[in-house]
Design brief:
This protein is mostly helical. It has one domain (3-238). It has 7 helices and 2 strands, in the order H-E-H-H-E-H-H-H-H. Bound molecules: NADPH dihydro-nicotinamide-adenine-dinucleotide phosphate.
Length: 254
């Protein structure tokens, strides 16, 4: 693929994310607590998660590993970070969920597959084929973008994994009800799992310092900021005693 065609594709992808953002704020994504039959056929929640996330793992890894570029060492670090995240999200997280009997709309799965196919492709192709040794020289390990990016990535991953873990253990096996989470970063925000994920991909984008990684970060915010706002509103409506000082996504801010 020509560099200019690829760049145009990624800019268009970012533009679509910005364009649909107001829609995503308005329309509540119907999975998890917001699931509804109005969106058509439903599928088992656990199977849905595996199907949705698998393309991000396979497409990214395939395009990276079979790419014809020089693969500077930093791109192997980025490859490892992506795989670490998506092995958990695809092959571990769905089996830990306590959502027995719950379903999600097939339409959501198709949308998520599309999202993951494009993000997996642009990032895998870029790092596997287009990234150059001049862009990521050996000294890049000491570059402030690399150091800060790694700290952000693992800080975000810690918050994301810890928060997902807290949520999963709010229920005993077989339970499907909701309670107010009180531990960890839930003291500050309703959705620290989403906050952690945003920080994680901000770190990835900082290390990679390229357009496809920025596009993925923008899309992550466009997905997760509205979801956190919807969850926060839902908590406040459901629980009279919901902590009033708790924010939706960003501690002390929003
Ligand atoms: P949620 O916080 O909605 O749910 C996570 C799990 O915890 C679900 O099994 C949910 O059950 C359960 N749960 C949530 N709140 C409670 C509660 N108060 N009491 C009891 N159980 C609860 O997370 P999401 O489904 O939105 O996301 C899951 C993960 O995927 C997150 O780490 C998120 O960051 C990531 N993600 C990433 C996206 C991206 O664009 N990169 C997009 C979407 C998600 P139930 O399903 O029954 O509600």
């Amino acid at each position: 693929m020509k560099d200019t065609t690829f760049t145009l594709l990624v800019y268009s992808w970012i533009a679509i994310a910005i364009f649909i953002f107001p829609l995503v704020v308005k329309i509540v994504a119907p999975y998890g607590r917001h699931t509804t039959k109005k969106w058509g056929a439903l599928i088992d929640n656990r199977i849905g998660w595996i199907l949705m996330e698998m393309p991000a793992l396979l497409v990214f890894a395939g395009f990276y590993l079979f790419g014809s570029g020089p693969k500077p060492s930093v791109t192997w670090v980025l490859f490892s970070l992506w795989v670490l995240h998506y092995v958990n999200r695809t092959l571990i997280f769905p089996f830990r969920l306590r959502t027995s009997g719950k379903k999600m709309p097939v339409a959501i799965i198709f949308m998520a597959i599309g999202f993951n196919l494009v993000n997996g492709f642009i990032n895998g192709y870029y790092l596997g084929t287009m990234a150059t040794l001049e862009q990521y020289p050996l000294g890049y390990w000491m570059d402030i973008r690399f150091i800060l990016g790694i700290l952000l990535f693992f800080g975000g991953m810690f918050i994301n994994w810890q928060s997902d873990n807290i949520l999963i253990h709010l229920r005993k096996p077989g339970e499907t009800s909701y309670v107010i989470p009180q531990k960890g970063f839930f003291r500050f925000v309703s959705c620290p799992n989403h906050f952690g994920e945003i920080v994680e991909w901000a770190g990835f984008a900082m290390i990679a310092w390229c357009l496809p990684a920025l596009a993925f970060f923008v899309w992550t915010v466009v997905n997760l900021l509205p979801r956190a706002l919807h969850h926060h509103k839902w908590y406040k409506e459901k629980f009279q005693d919901y902590p009033p000082e708790r924010k939706a996504l960003f501690p002390f801010f929003l």
